[in-house]
Design a protein that fits this description.
Number of strands: 9
Largest sheet: 8 strands, mixed, barrel
Structural class: alpha+beta
Strand order of the largest sheet: 1-2-3-4-8-9-6-5
Strand content: 25-35%
Order of helices and strands: HHEEEEEEEHEEH
Length: about 210
Amino acid sequence: MKLSRPSAKTLRRSLTALALVFALGGAALIAYPFVTDLWAGRIQTSLRADLSLSTSADTYRAGDVKIGKALTRLEIPAIDLDVVVVEGTTPAALRAGAGHYPKTALPGEQGNVAIAGHRTTYGRPFNRMDDLKPGDKIVLTTPIGKHTYEVTSRPWVVSPTDATPLTKYEEGGYFLTLTSCHPEGSAAYRIIVRAELIDSTDTVAQAAIRSRS
């Protein structure tokens, strides 16, 4: 049985349709970061209002901040970062840009405060994370206090399944760990920054800082 060959007109139509598909796909890829930035910006506006409510202090003290709700404001002057961090690291929570690992310490508490953030989408709060260096300050402001951490080492990279940056730290210390995907636009690795508490408006944390000096 002899098969008929497609006509030149049919081939042109097919190629045109294929080109349109590729063009639309490319446009979507280009627009995606912009759209997610707009989304995160709207969420951040709402979160800043939530964090300023007087009633949130009681919720914070009770450790009852729900997933996706405002937990702390994070500021890093060295990289011009100012973002409200939510509780949780689920995909939905991280649409705000940055989220707190629920089973880690709260800002100002003993232990390791761990926060994850996006580098290329949803506001890109950790886009310049690899520029941080020892001595840079990181400020976490919560409904009940302000805590200043100091970066203690250059950023380093681990595999995405390596949880030691969250679980391995000096016992009795007050630490902060920031994590994000690495390299930019890829989830092949995780980039890590570690900082240590050097100042706080919380009396318990203040006493701990003085005891180390």
